Each structure stands twice: as structure tokens, then as C-alpha cells.
Amino acid sequence: MPESAANRSIIRKCLFPVAGYGTRFLPATKSMPKEMLPIVNKPLIQYAAEEAMEAGLHDLGFVTGRNKRAIADHFDLSYELEKEIAGTGKEKQLESINQVMETCTFTYTRQRRMLGLGHAVLTGETMINDQAFGLVLADDLCVTENGDPGVLSQLVELYRQFRCTILAVQEVPDSEVHKYGVVAGESLKEDVIRVTDMVEKPSADQAPSNLAVIGRYILTPDIFDTLRKTEPGKNDEIQLTDAILAQARSGCVMAYKFKGRRFDCGSIPGFVEASQWVYENLHKKR
Ligand code: G1P
User: Which of 31, 57, 82, 286 has its CA 20 to 30 A from that of 184?
Assistant: First the structure.
């Protein structure tokens, strides 16, 4: 069926860099991907995939690594288990993952060496090619309330308006800026900032603001050529932040103060807080 111009403009692909080690959760992550850690009864990577699916991004690409096969298995059939629980009430427990599996496609490529987030994104190029795409870091769990669309949906909406790279940002205390990419720029309207500066994990006294980038992005495909030219930066890694700053300087990058909450599930306190929130707000109410 020929696609209409309107259809073509919708972003369809989403990249998930999932090759990292998850050392903060050892020993749990010794033989299990950190993205498979459950918040209550659902692994982090499934929350991430569901957020992409809700935003209409149905082609999911994973930049994986060694010891990450459980992720690909999670998005596939489990014949023995399914046969075992067929016809029982337990089948219901698989509804959410089945919906993701029926709606989305899944592609995997391996990152052999961990040379930074920028390198992970560049490794995913083969699954994206020349279209704008979503990027989701699954250890940031994002939730919304009061019927607000998911954070990635909010970014897609802004992309429709601006047609450039869009970053989700939130204000953090000065004592936390060293954990994030931090942006500064000019306020265009409520909650939208045109980025003019961006620094990866600055010290509090060098941070250009306290607006921290969280793990949700829409990136335009010129990011790949920019990443190819990006030298190792902070911590000697190829930083996505540096490539996005180059985009901001040569074109346009918008930062958006998203509606919703984000839990840093890459840290133990954030993980526990997210579990509590999901249990109280999503699980108990089902
Ligand atoms: C990465 C990015 C950083 C961003 C953060 C969001 O850092 O490099 O710019 O603010 O994700 O979670 P990481 O947490 O992987 O060290």
C-alpha cells in the first residue's frame, strides 16, 4: 500500500542501547542483563518497548552485547511455558508482552566493545539508516499520570513541529548535575528550549544550567555522520552529548521539559523508588 506523506512523517524506529554491564547491580547482573531487572513483575526493557510502541515507534532495534540473549528471548515465544499455562488464568500474565510482540518488529546488532553511548548509537546505524528515530535508555523509567501521553510520545509531538533533534530534560539539584548531560539555551516557549550549549557530566561549578538530559531522545539521522567525526570526550568515551552539541551549533536541537516522572533505575535508590511507585500506582490498581 503506498504511504501517504502524513504517514511517512511519523517516526517508526526506536533504538535501545542495551550492551552496558550494570555493575551497580552486581551480583544480580552477573549473568543477567540489567535491562531484565523487573520493576514489580515487568522487566525494564519491556517498559521501554511499551513506551516506544505507544508513541507509534514499532520497529525496535537493540544494540546488545555478550550475556544479553535474555532480552531477545523475552520478545519471542516461549513454547514450553505457553503450552504449560494454556487454558489457565495465568495466560493473562503474558498479555502485555504478547501485545508488544504482535505489534513490533525486533532487530539486534552487537556492540563488541563499550566505547560510550555515542559509539553504541553509531553501532545501531545499520538498523536505522536515514530517518529520524527514537532513542531510549531503558534504565530511565518514565511514567506519566492523568492520562498524559508517554514521554516519547511527547517528544514525537514536538518533532512534528520542529523537525530536529529533541531531548527530554528535567531540572535536577546542583549536586546531581555531574551525573548527566546538561543543556543550556534560549527559552522558546513554556517548557521548550533551543539548545545552545551542552556538557556531559559537568561539575556543579561548570554546569551551564541544571537542566539534565534524561534517557529519551528523538535524533535526526545526521547524528551518525556527526558521531563518526566525534573524538572521545568525557571519560575517554565517544559521547552522544558532544555530537548533539555539534548538531545544535550547525542546525537546531530542542530540549523539552517533559510531563511526567522519571526514575533512575540504573541506581539502587531509584530502582527501589520506581518499584514502590509502580506497585502503588499501576500494579495494585489492576
Ligand atoms: C547517559 C548520557 C547522559 C544522560 C544520561 C541520562 O549517561 O551520557 O548525557 O544525561 O544518560 O540517563 P549514563 O547515565 O549512561 O552515564
Answer: 57
